[in-house]
From TrEMBL:
Keywords, in A-Z order: Methyltransferase, RNA-binding, S-adenosyl-L-methionine, Transferase
GO function terms (MF aspect): RNA binding; RNA methyltransferase activity
Keyword RNA-binding belongs to the record: yes
Stretch list, region Disordered: 1-38
GO biological process: regulation of DNA-templated transcription; RNA methylation
Species name: Arthrobacter pigmenti
Family assignment from sequence similarity: Belongs to the class I-like SAM-binding methyltransferase superfamily. RsmB/NOP family.
Coiled-coil features, chain-numbered ranges: none
Domain annotation SAM-dependent MTase RsmB/NOP-type: ranges: 202-496
Enzyme Commission code(s) on record: 2.1.1.176
Group of enzyme by EC: transferase
Name listed for the protein in its UniProt record: 16S rRNA (Cytosine967-C5)-methyltransferase
Bias (Basic and acidic residues): 1-21
InterPro entries named among the record's database cross-references: MeTrfase_RsmB-F_NOP2_cat (IPR049560), MeTrfase_RsmB-F_NOP2_dom (IPR001678), NusB-like_sf (IPR035926), NusB_RsmB_TIM44 (IPR006027), RCMT (IPR023267), RsmB/NOL1/NOP2-like_CS (IPR018314), SAM-dependent_MTases_sf (IPR029063)
Amino acid sequence: MTDRRPNDPSRRNERGRERNRSGSRKFSTAAPSERTRRADPARLVAFEVLRAVSADDAYANLVLPGSIRKHRLGRQDAGFATELAYGALRGQGTYDAILGQCVDRPLDQLDPAVLDALRIGVHQLMAMRVPPHAALDQTVGLARAVIGAGPSSLINAVLRKVSRRPLAEWLDELVGGMEEPVRVSSLKFSHPEWIVRALRQSLVAHGRNVSEIDNLLQADNAAPEVNLVALPGIGTLDEVLQAGGRPGDLVEDSVVFAAGDVGRLESVRSGKVRVQDAGSQLVARALAAVELDSGGGKGESWLDLCAGPGGKAALLGAVAAQGGHVLVANEPAEHRAALVRQALDAVPSHVWTVRVDDGRTVGAAYPDGFDRILVDAPCTGLGALRRRPESRWRRKPADLVDLAPLQRGLLSEALDTVRPGGVVAYVTCSPHPAETTAVVQDCLRGRKDFSLLDAGAALDAVSITGALNAGHESTAQLWPHVHGTDAMFLALIRRSRH
């Protein structure tokens, strides 16, 4: 027979419910029937984003705007949803380590929807100015509404355990006794260990000190501001500045927008003003401005070899139009080529052509070659982790190996196709030496008719400050923690005329 304790009236409250035996917990101020049973719209948007990323391999930046519109969030709620979704994705590694201390089973045995709800709850508790009771109540209410009553009880219990310590104390417990600096940085700054190692190696390869790694990782976790560019000769920044933007301090015709939906602005909807990271603006302008050995002049022919989705092509097209030049934008995938056409729509149509084909065959299609070629090569995107919060958890070390033949093939094709006296810009949104300096060195080996230009000086020449300190051994590398840009790499390669 099961042993039962005597019925002790002193353990019951005025409604006849038994009090907690330990005496350390308190009842909610609301009766169960009065507790939140609906999903707060902003938190629901964040949950939908995490679910799409987890279940469908979706990109957060593509899912989020549609979900915000579907739930008709105002500006403040949209900002909250954005921070909650992106923050939960960026902090996933740290938050999962904390949850691992509070859940009685391996996290991969949880329902994925429950795990996503928990991550949303942990981010509110650890990194947002949300009162703990509100974070718990609203997250449990979200779970009740979209997952079910049973899981909501688990979520409530786990988040209560999480809430008993601030983030600093959790981190002290997680890294206590660890001596391996890569593991410590991985846990503290929520990056996979292989990426921490890769970024440490990248800092050294580009002439910086490995001690900067924590600052770099921390910059990856900061919510990035929106950078915009007015297409030269086509757009103006007046509307964006009136809406609260401030002039960019790195590159001309740029503006920084801290909060709000820039897509509602007419200048942005028309394509005359475009969202584009300042680092991308700088590398495109550097190629357009660098002096050709042939002297240049009107009538140059330019090529964007890997043009999709079209941001750099639009900026290059606008600059080309001002100088009397023409641009070919090459993109192998038709759906991305459609995006390139859309991006170029604001540029006079006689200036540009979109080619849909493998970039490694462009030389046969254009035997006369080009004066300036941009090779914005497909890469791991390790330099844009702050803007693509889910990317750090999707990328694998094998991606570096898989992309290498394509990167070398595209750059080699560009070198074969550029005219004597012309310049090729090799660009990646990754600082990893396997995708940057190693590719350039391999493709230039044995080619005596090519030489590296001073890419750092070229960036300085088109920057407002004129002193970016981004150059190292002729190539240039921008950094989030130094320049406030994505980690764009640039090599400028000139073909001799003889």
